[in-house]
Amino acid sequence: MQSRRTFVKAGVGIAVSVLVQPSAVLAQSDSLAAVVREYAGTALLREGRVKINIAPLVDNGNSVPIEVTVESPMTVADHVVGIALFNEKNPQRDVAQFTLGPHAGRARVATRIRLATTQKLVAVAKMSDGTCWTHAVDVLVTLAACIEE
Amino acid sequence: MARTLITVPSTARRDEVIEIRVLIQHPMETGYRRSSEGEMMARNLIRRFTCRFEEDGKAGNGVPVFSAMLYAAVSANPFLTFHARATASGAFVFSWDGDNGFSQSERTGIEVT
After folding, report:
1. A59, A139 in Cβ contact below 8 A?
2. For residues B52, B110, B17 and B94, what is the CA-based torsion angle, rounded to 10 degrees?
3. pTM of the model
4. Taking every pair of C-alpha atoms in chain A, what is the biggest distance, in angstroms?
């Protein structure tokens, strides 16, 4: 007979596996991964240094404020070359691509975007030393940007 | 001419990093929507935005500060915030290019002390 103790342990195990899974299972859809790879070229993609600031819950998908910041001194020797923003479920994967340089002074860009549905956003920052950094966020959209009117 | 709203400080100290905000009036029609008559509405986007800095008394086209490729996922009336290092007095030149031959340029001067 199964004791209460082992039953509770099993339950905790299942709960933990459910909590841990999302990052691995909800891996990026293929087309999103492909455009990210195309932008990064042959560089290794690492997480960190770049950060997307966006409200996790979006009321109106027609105009969503978004900010991308990259940790970088922005000097001639070490600066951000470009930042690209991709989405998972809009009709097109591209959102915007920014080109920066040492004259930009600070690697922080903000704009307003459209989101067709609840989805994942990925930012990729390309550095002058050739490294690429990414950050992905999930946003929940309650009122979608209209694709049809 | 589309209306623009550009925010650049009029003065800055040398090597100060300043914030620049630009907005332009434009529908950014995605090409994925239908009109009330059921016809697909033609795509009409601003594709590219660039910002260059022209130093006073220097010839040429200036130095690139920032540029952006915009796609259908950018909201109507594209709004961009970015930064620039104030190195000398001069002018920032902003230009937008897009579908149907859309092209517009604006310039804003800055005094660096």
Report:
1. no
2. -30
3. 0.84
4. 71
Minimum CA–CA partner of A96 in chain B = B70
Residues of A in Cβ contact (< 8 Å) with B13: none
Q: Report the SS3 class of residue B109.
A: strand
Tokens 């579908």 belong to residue: B99
B69 at interface of A, judged by CB pairs closer than 8 A:
yes
Whether the pLDDT of residue A15 is over 70: the answer is: no
d(CA B80, CA A108): 11
CB neighbours (10 Å) of residue A30? 8
Is ipTM over 0.95?
A: no
Residue B26's Cβ-count burial label (10 Å; 0-12, 13-18, 19+) is buried
Tens-place pLDDT, residues B5-60: 999 999 999 999 999 999 999 999 999 888 889 899 999 999 999 999 999 988 88
Indicate if the alpha-carbon torsion angle B79, B83, B84, B89 is positive or negative: positive
Contacting residues of B for A97, CB less than 8 Å apart: 68-69
What is the enclosing helix (H) or strand (E) of A109? Answer: strand A108-113
pLDDT higher than 50, residue A135? yes
Q: What is the dihedral of CA B69, B75, B77, B82, to 10 degrees?
A: -50
Which residue reads 């937008």 in tokens?
A: B96
| Type of residue numbered A74 | M
Predicted confidence band of residue B72 (pLDDT cuts 50, 70, 90): very high
User: Pick from B18, B30, B68: which is nearest to A96 by CB?
Assistant: B68
